[in-house]
């Protein structure tokens, strides 16, 4: 009979940890901001969005079902500003970057 995972005498546990300002964390904050904005005005709203960031560009994609209006570019720019991305020298500037929704 095969051994169950938790019964094994040894196993390898892996995880990933990223630091503040990492693109994954930044993307998560933008997507979370969109979700928060939808749920603030529409508790029954549904959000399944992903965010991608590259030099000078943010793309927010996915599905949003809501009865309220959400200013996604404003959420993107506010999140970038809070994270300190305020100069083009940093790879992306909150005020001048492109935002595709």
Short description:
The chain has 101 residues and is α+β, with helices and mostly antiparallel strands.
- Spatial strand arrangement across the major sheet: 1-2-5
Total number of helices: 2
- Give the end-to-end Cα distance, rounded to a whole number of Å: 52 Å
Which class best fits the helix and strand makeup?
A: alpha+beta
For the sheet with most strands, the description reads: 3 strands, mixed
Number of domains: 1
What integer is the average pLDDT?
90
User: What is the approximate shape?
Assistant: flat
How many E-type strands?
A: 5
In the CATH hierarchy, the architecture is: 2-Layer Sandwich
Which radius of gyration do the C-alpha atoms yield?
A: 18 Å
- Top-tier CATH class: Alpha Beta
Strand content: 15-25%
CATH topology: GMP Synthetase, Chain A, domain 3
Instruction: Report helical residue fraction.
Output: 25-40%
List low-confidence stretches.
none
Following the backbone from N to C, one meets helices and strands in this order, namely HEEHEEE
Task: Describe it.
The protein contains two helices and five strands, in the order αββαβββ. The protein has 101 residues and is an alpha+beta fold. It has a single domain, classed as GMP Synthetase, Chain A, domain 3. It has a three-stranded mixed sheet with strand order 1-2-5, with helices on one face. A two-stranded antiparallel ribbon has the order 3-4. A hairpin with a 4-residue loop joins strand 3 (86-87) and strand 4 (92-93). Helix 1 (23-41) packs across helix 2 (72-82). The longest helix is centred in the N-terminal third of the chain and has 19 residues, at 23-41. The protein is flat and about 60 Å long. The termini are far apart. The mean pLDDT is 90.
């Amino acid at each position: 009979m095969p051994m169950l995972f938790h019964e094994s005498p040894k196993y390898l546990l892996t995880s990933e940890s990223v630091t503040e300002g990492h693109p994954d964390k930044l993307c998560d904050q933008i997507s979370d901001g969109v979700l928060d904005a939808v749920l603030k005005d529409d508790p029954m709203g549904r959000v399944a969005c992903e965010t991608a960031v590259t030099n000078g560009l943010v793309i927010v994609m996915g599905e949003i079902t809501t009865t309220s209006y959400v200013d996604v570019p404003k959420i993107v720019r506010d999140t970038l500003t809070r994270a300190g991305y305020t100069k083009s020298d940093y790879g992306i500037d909150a005020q001048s970057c492109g935002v595709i929704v």
